[in-house]
Amino acid sequence: MKSKYLSNSIKATVLITAFSHGASLRAITPPAAQPMDGVATGQIQLETVDFKDRPEAKILTRAYTLLALGDHDYAGHRVEAMKHLEVAGKFLGMDLAGDLTNHSRQVLSDQKMLEAQRMLAHLVKMASVKDQGRVVNQLNDAINEISLGLAVK
User: Fold this and answer.
1) CA angle at residue 67 from 70 to 146, to 5 degrees?
2) Which of 35, 66, 79, 89 could lock 94 by a disulfide, CB 3.0 to 4.6 Å apart?
3) pLDDT tens digits for 46-71?
4) Which 3 state secondary structure label does DSSP give 28?
5) What are the φ and ψ backbone dihedral angles of 117, each rounded to 5 degrees?
6) What are the distances in angstroms from CA 142 to CA 21, 61, 84, 87, 130?
């Protein structure tokens, strides 16, 4: 009985550690096991998946790129939104950095800012990210900065 409790404690510790390091888990089909008594068991095994390979990471990266391509005419709010996304990315083990040089005209830039804002709002609703509270706070701060930036004209 004690060894079963210890085994469950170890499993819980492994799961907590995996989640705290940005991994998510998905079930995989194990190969057919042949136990010593000849009866096959159907235990489910779990495989870790890095956050950067998840759809949420692609949304975050795309939103950051849209902001990085934007015009500079937002009284610093575009850059502040990018900084919030960089922090959120660091929480998730992603490296988001830099401002792209191919900036758009104001009208197109405004559209990119709005699209990035919508993507981030969708990402907040998904909320299936590591360290959700800290990440969601950064995403909400970025959404707010975009709103403030779009109000500057």
Assistant:
1) 100
2) 89
3) 555 466 667 888 999 999 999 998 88
4) strand
5) -60, -45
6) 23, 13, 6, 10, 18
> Rounded to an integer, what distance in angstroms lies between the CA atom of residue 26 and that of residue 49?
7
Q: Which of 110, 96, 101, 87 is nearest to 62 (CA)?
A: 96
- Written as six digits, the tokens of 89 are 């990315």
Task: State how far the Cα of 103 lies from the Cα of 111, in Å rounded to an integer.
Answer: 13
Q: Where are the domains of the chain?
A: 2-50, 54-151
Helix ranges, 1-131 (H)? 2-20, 55-68, 77-91, 106-126
For residues 11 and 14, what is the distance between their CA atoms, to the nearest angstrom? 5
CA angle 49, 51, 55 (to 5 degrees): 100
Q: What is the pLDDT of residue 117?
A: 96
Residue 27 has pLDDT above 60, yes or no: no
CA distance 35 to 40: 6
Q: How much of the chain is in helix, strand and coil states, percent to nearest 5?
A: 60, 10, 30
- Find the helix packing angle between 55-68 and 106-126, rounded to 10°: 160
